[in-house]
Amino acid sequence: MGLLEGKTALVTGIANKRSIAWGIARAFDREGARLILTYQNDRLKENLDKLVGDLSNAPILVAPLDVSDDGSLTALAERIGDVTDALDVLVHSVAFAKGEDLSGRFLETSREGYHLAQDISAYSLTALVRALYEPLKNAGRASVMAMTYQGSIRVMPNYNVMGVAKAALESSVRYLAFDLGREGIRVNAISAGPIKTLAAAGVKGISSALHSTVERAPIAENITTEDVGNAAVFLASPWSERITGHVLYVDSGFHIMGF
Ligand code: 0WD
């Protein structure tokens, strides 16, 4: 029997087969979860339609979601309400910043670029949890998780405005964990090491980040979306029942290193 048998899990942020969210969806599927998947726009829906054929169980719902649009969040909550009263697992795997804000000096970040990165990459977690509060509460023991990166606490050249957004995201995880703990809703983050995805390709210097992991991390190997998927299964399962407000590093141990 799978670790997530009988659980309903929403996974956001699948852009293509390289997406971290796809690694998570596959791991959840393997463990017997009932999946709800979202896509950002029609172009990405086509990718998702092809990918879901690889799952052992068809998703119970595939729906659009633009996290920057409150109407879209409300519409998603309604669609979810049509298929289930309870949502056991919620995965936030969404981030965006302007290309020009992901290279050069952080100093040059515009007000607009800063707001955009914060809105889509950090505030969206709170917006999503707010929109889905009822089904999460109904689950009794729900688990929410967000994807983050160590650029939140250390300077990773070029990560810039996204590092600041990830700091806000990780802080949001802690405040939400406090707000929702008494309702049985846990909120955690997974801080993944660098993985070559569509979003990562937008950050100048991803190749050197991948190279650094192999050179300097205790486990001298880059991580995969499958590694993140397995950690997500743990956070979604009862085996992590007393863990909340935590940032779990899945980075081959890179974060413990000084020199
Ligand atoms: O090295 C990496 N790849 C790491 C990624 C290391 C550590 C953390 N992360 C984080 C990212 O910051 C993000 O939060 O993992 C999460 C998932 O990112 P990913 O899997 O690396 O990237 P990708 O496959 O591109 O998925 C992110 C998706 C978007 O894709 P594109 O590249 O088309 O922007 O986030 C979605 C979109 O599908 N997205 C949105 N979804 C709903 N509403 C929105 C939006 N407004 N904007 C972006």
| Corresponding CATH superfamily | NAD(P)-binding Rossmann-like Domain
Number of H/I helices: 9
Q: State mean pLDDT (0 to 100 scale).
A: 97
CATH architecture: 3-Layer(aba) Sandwich
- CATH topology, by name, is Rossmann fold
Cα distance spanning the termini: 44 Å
Assembly type: single chain
Strand adjacency order, main sheet? 3-2-1-4-5-6-7
Spans of at least 5 consecutive residues whose pLDDT stays below 50 are none
> What is the CATH level 1 assignment?
Alpha Beta
Largest sheet: 7 strands, parallel
Radius of gyration: 17 Å
Q: Which structural category do the helix and sheet elements fall into?
A: alpha/beta
Order of helices and strands: EHEHEHEHHEHEHHHE
Instruction: Tally the beta strands.
Output: 7
Instruction: Please give the domain count.
Output: 1
Helix content: 40-55%
Bound molecules: ligand 0WD
**DSSP strand (E) fraction?**
5-15%
GO molecular function: enoyl-[acyl-carrier-protein] reductase (NADH) activity
Catalytic activity: a 2,3-saturated acyl-[ACP] + NAD(+) = a (2E)-enoyl-[ACP] + NADH + H(+)
Organism: Sulfobacillus harzensis
Pathway: Lipid metabolism
Key features?
7 strands; 7-stranded parallel beta sheet; globular; Rossmann fold; binds ligand 0WD; 259 residues; 42% helix; alpha/beta
Question: Could you describe the 3D structure shown?
Answer:
This protein is of the alpha/beta class and 259 residues long. It has one domain: NAD(P)-binding Rossmann-like Domain (Rossmann fold), CATH 3.40.50.720. It is 42% helix and 14% strand. It has 9 helices and 7 strands, in the order E-H-E-H-E-H-E-H-H-E-H-E-H-H-H-E. Strands 3-2-1-4-5-6-7 form a 7-stranded parallel beta sheet, sandwiched between helices. The N and C termini lie far apart (44 Å). The model has no long low-confidence stretch (mean pLDDT 97). The site of ligand 0WD has 26 residues, from helix 1, strand 5 and helix 7. It comes from Sulfobacillus harzensis. One of its GO terms (biological process) is fatty acid biosynthetic process. This is Enoyl-[acyl-carrier-protein] reductase [NADH]. Pathway: Lipid metabolism.
